[in-house]
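User: quick one, fold this
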Amino acid sequence: MTTRNLTGMLAKKMPRETGTARTKGETLFQLFFALIQWPWLLKSLYGGNKAEKNAVLERINLEQDALPHLGSWKADTYLLHRIVDEIEVRQPKNVVELGSGVTSLVIAKALSLHGGGHLYSYDQYEPFVEQMGIWLAEHHLSASFSHAPLNFRDQAWPGLWYALHDLPQTIDLLVIDGPPWSIHPFTRGMAERLFERIAPGGLIMLDDAARPGERYVARRWRKTWRDFEFKFEGTGAKGLLTGRRIDRSDNRQK
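Assistant:
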């Protein structure tokens, strides 16, 4: 169940949330979009080679067997290195993660080494959430894992969104690695609901940013959120979009 194990090539089936379901139009759009997006989906299955994975683990003092398997919908090593980069430099107090997994272990360990901040992680699969806490405890780490069912809608975006709770008032780093594209190719656009909580100078990191769905999301965010500086990083297997909230106080000091 945990990300120590191999996962299937196909995304997990969406949990049946009471009173909430995708519309017929959303289902048809998903099937149509899959015909466009399949090359990027195949690329998403690659997580990095053994040497790249070991380099991440050595960097944050984790055992070589801490992450036996990467790829197959898990974070790639480029994203993991970039997360550690930001935590090393920024030492964030509050990190919020949408989509628990490999990134949770890496974030929690990096925070323990750099500043001692706290991770708030949300996922729609309740059994998986329970296992994540156990997995981190094996490495003497902790985080706040919460079940966030996909039963919320926003008129601004198609698809379903997390029913989030117990969020910190301010967020220094927001890692967006869910919901899966199978909910809707544009569903991660609803992460903008949290942008007002991003602290000045805070950072957004959107995984899978090379996919057509996430590229559309990024275009809309750039138009709407003028107080963020967005940058696409295409070095990794899946692409990464970062968005740093402009700190107006820095401009005044200059």
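User: anything notable?
Assistant: Residues 23-245 form a domain with the Rossmann fold fold (CATH 3.40.50.150).
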